[in-house]
Specification:
171 residues, alpha+beta, globular
Length: 171
Protein backbone atom coordinates (compact mmCIF):
# COMPACT_ATOMS: atom_id res chain seq x y z
CA UNK A 1 0.00 0.00 0.00
CA UNK A 2 1.31 3.43 -0.88
CA UNK A 3 1.03 6.35 1.51
CA UNK A 4 -1.90 8.67 0.92
CA UNK A 5 -0.98 12.02 -0.51
CA UNK A 6 -2.47 15.33 0.41
CA UNK A 7 -3.04 18.24 -1.93
CA UNK A 8 -4.39 21.55 -0.76
CA UNK A 9 -5.33 23.65 -3.75
CA UNK A 10 -8.13 26.01 -4.63
CA UNK A 11 -9.99 25.40 -1.39
CA UNK A 12 -10.22 21.63 -1.91
CA UNK A 13 -8.67 18.94 0.23
CA UNK A 14 -7.93 15.78 -1.74
CA UNK A 15 -6.85 12.51 -0.20
CA UNK A 16 -5.85 9.58 -2.36
CA UNK A 17 -4.72 6.07 -1.58
CA UNK A 18 -4.12 2.84 -3.52
CA UNK A 19 -7.66 2.62 -4.78
CA UNK A 20 -7.36 6.09 -6.37
CA UNK A 21 -10.46 7.30 -4.53
CA UNK A 22 -10.65 11.04 -4.26
CA UNK A 23 -12.78 13.05 -1.92
CA UNK A 24 -12.99 16.79 -2.43
CA UNK A 25 -13.89 19.24 0.31
CA UNK A 26 -15.63 22.38 -0.86
CA UNK A 27 -14.69 25.84 0.42
CA UNK A 28 -17.98 26.03 2.33
CA UNK A 29 -17.18 22.73 4.10
CA UNK A 30 -13.73 24.13 4.97
CA UNK A 31 -15.39 27.06 6.68
CA UNK A 32 -17.64 24.71 8.67
CA UNK A 33 -14.76 22.32 9.53
CA UNK A 34 -12.42 25.01 10.79
CA UNK A 35 -14.85 27.59 12.16
CA UNK A 36 -14.80 26.05 15.63
CA UNK A 37 -11.03 26.08 16.10
CA UNK A 38 -10.47 28.19 19.18
CA UNK A 39 -14.13 29.29 19.32
CA UNK A 40 -15.36 30.17 22.78
CA UNK A 41 -11.82 30.40 24.15
CA UNK A 42 -9.89 33.42 25.24
CA UNK A 43 -7.29 34.23 22.56
CA UNK A 44 -4.47 33.21 24.88
CA UNK A 45 -5.99 29.73 25.39
CA UNK A 46 -6.53 28.79 21.73
CA UNK A 47 -3.03 27.36 21.10
CA UNK A 48 -3.20 25.15 24.19
CA UNK A 49 -6.64 23.90 23.11
CA UNK A 50 -5.39 23.16 19.57
CA UNK A 51 -2.41 21.27 20.99
CA UNK A 52 -4.58 19.24 23.35
CA UNK A 53 -7.04 18.36 20.56
CA UNK A 54 -4.16 17.30 18.27
CA UNK A 55 -2.58 15.09 20.94
CA UNK A 56 -5.92 13.44 21.78
CA UNK A 57 -6.80 12.78 18.13
CA UNK A 58 -3.33 11.44 17.28
CA UNK A 59 -3.36 9.12 20.28
CA UNK A 60 -6.86 7.87 19.43
CA UNK A 61 -5.71 7.17 15.83
CA UNK A 62 -2.81 5.01 17.08
CA UNK A 63 0.04 7.46 16.46
CA UNK A 64 3.11 7.50 18.72
CA UNK A 65 3.50 10.98 20.24
CA UNK A 66 6.67 12.86 21.09
CA UNK A 67 6.80 16.37 22.58
CA UNK A 68 9.86 18.50 21.82
CA UNK A 69 9.91 21.31 24.42
CA UNK A 70 11.12 24.74 23.34
CA UNK A 71 12.39 27.73 25.29
CA UNK A 72 9.85 30.39 26.07
CA UNK A 73 6.31 30.22 27.36
CA UNK A 74 2.82 30.92 26.17
CA UNK A 75 0.77 33.97 27.18
CA UNK A 76 -0.35 32.28 30.41
CA UNK A 77 3.17 31.10 31.25
CA UNK A 78 2.48 27.57 29.97
CA UNK A 79 5.28 25.40 28.60
CA UNK A 80 5.45 25.15 24.81
CA UNK A 81 6.45 22.21 22.64
CA UNK A 82 6.46 20.94 19.08
CA UNK A 83 4.37 17.76 18.98
CA UNK A 84 5.28 14.97 16.58
CA UNK A 85 2.87 12.11 15.89
CA UNK A 86 4.20 9.11 13.94
CA UNK A 87 2.57 5.93 12.70
CA UNK A 88 5.15 3.56 11.23
CA UNK A 89 5.65 -0.04 10.28
CA UNK A 90 9.16 -1.25 11.07
CA UNK A 91 12.31 0.71 10.31
CA UNK A 92 11.33 3.80 8.34
CA UNK A 93 12.54 4.04 4.75
CA UNK A 94 9.89 6.44 3.42
CA UNK A 95 7.67 8.94 5.17
CA UNK A 96 4.88 11.35 4.36
CA UNK A 97 5.27 14.41 6.60
CA UNK A 98 2.47 16.92 7.22
CA UNK A 99 3.52 19.93 9.28
CA UNK A 100 1.64 22.93 10.61
CA UNK A 101 2.45 26.28 12.12
CA UNK A 102 5.82 27.24 10.61
CA UNK A 103 4.36 30.73 10.70
CA UNK A 104 2.75 30.55 14.12
CA UNK A 105 -0.33 32.57 13.31
CA UNK A 106 -1.13 30.15 10.46
CA UNK A 107 -0.89 27.20 12.82
CA UNK A 108 -4.60 27.16 13.60
CA UNK A 109 -5.55 26.35 10.03
CA UNK A 110 -2.83 23.70 9.79
CA UNK A 111 -3.91 22.23 13.11
CA UNK A 112 -7.50 22.01 11.88
CA UNK A 113 -6.37 20.23 8.70
CA UNK A 114 -4.38 17.74 10.80
CA UNK A 115 -7.39 17.13 13.07
CA UNK A 116 -9.60 16.51 10.05
CA UNK A 117 -7.06 14.03 8.67
CA UNK A 118 -6.79 12.23 12.01
CA UNK A 119 -10.57 11.97 12.19
CA UNK A 120 -10.92 10.56 8.68
CA UNK A 121 -8.77 8.29 6.54
CA UNK A 122 -5.63 8.43 8.68
CA UNK A 123 -7.43 6.95 11.68
CA UNK A 124 -7.65 3.59 9.88
CA UNK A 125 -4.47 3.91 7.81
CA UNK A 126 -1.81 1.28 8.47
CA UNK A 127 1.54 1.94 6.81
CA UNK A 128 3.18 -0.78 4.75
CA UNK A 129 6.52 -2.13 6.02
CA UNK A 130 9.16 0.61 5.89
CA UNK A 131 6.62 3.41 5.54
CA UNK A 132 5.48 6.04 7.99
CA UNK A 133 3.27 9.06 8.28
CA UNK A 134 4.40 11.89 10.55
CA UNK A 135 2.36 14.88 11.64
CA UNK A 136 4.33 17.78 13.08
CA UNK A 137 2.04 20.06 15.04
CA UNK A 138 3.06 23.69 15.57
CA UNK A 139 6.59 23.94 14.20
CA UNK A 140 6.55 27.42 15.78
CA UNK A 141 4.55 26.95 19.01
CA UNK A 142 5.59 30.34 20.42
CA UNK A 143 4.30 32.11 17.31
CA UNK A 144 1.09 30.11 17.43
CA UNK A 145 0.50 30.84 21.12
CA UNK A 146 1.26 34.55 20.68
CA UNK A 147 -0.42 34.85 17.27
CA UNK A 148 2.81 35.90 15.57
CA UNK A 149 4.42 34.88 12.29
CA UNK A 150 7.87 34.82 13.91
CA UNK A 151 9.29 32.96 16.90
CA UNK A 152 10.21 34.47 20.30
CA UNK A 153 13.44 35.88 18.82
CA UNK A 154 11.70 37.54 15.88
CA UNK A 155 12.89 34.90 13.43
CA UNK A 156 10.71 33.90 10.47
CA UNK A 157 11.40 30.15 10.38
CA UNK A 158 10.51 29.94 6.72
CA UNK A 159 13.11 32.51 5.67
CA UNK A 160 15.77 32.89 8.33
CA UNK A 161 17.69 29.62 8.30
CA UNK A 162 21.04 28.40 7.09
CA UNK A 163 22.20 24.94 6.21
CA UNK A 164 25.11 23.33 8.05
CA UNK A 165 28.34 25.12 7.16
CA UNK A 166 26.62 27.96 5.32
CA UNK A 167 28.04 31.37 6.28
CA UNK A 168 25.79 34.27 7.18
CA UNK A 169 25.62 36.67 4.23
CA UNK A 170 23.56 39.50 5.77
CA UNK A 171 20.25 40.91 4.61
Amino acid sequence: MRLPFILLAGGALILAGDNKRRAGVSPSRYRRMFAGVGRGLAADQAAAAARSAFRQAASAAGFELTALPIEGTGPQGEALAIDVAVKASGPIQRACVVSSGTHGVEGYFGSAVQLELLGSELAAFEPAPGQAIALIHAVNPWGMAHKRRVDARGIDLNRNFRTTGEAYQGA
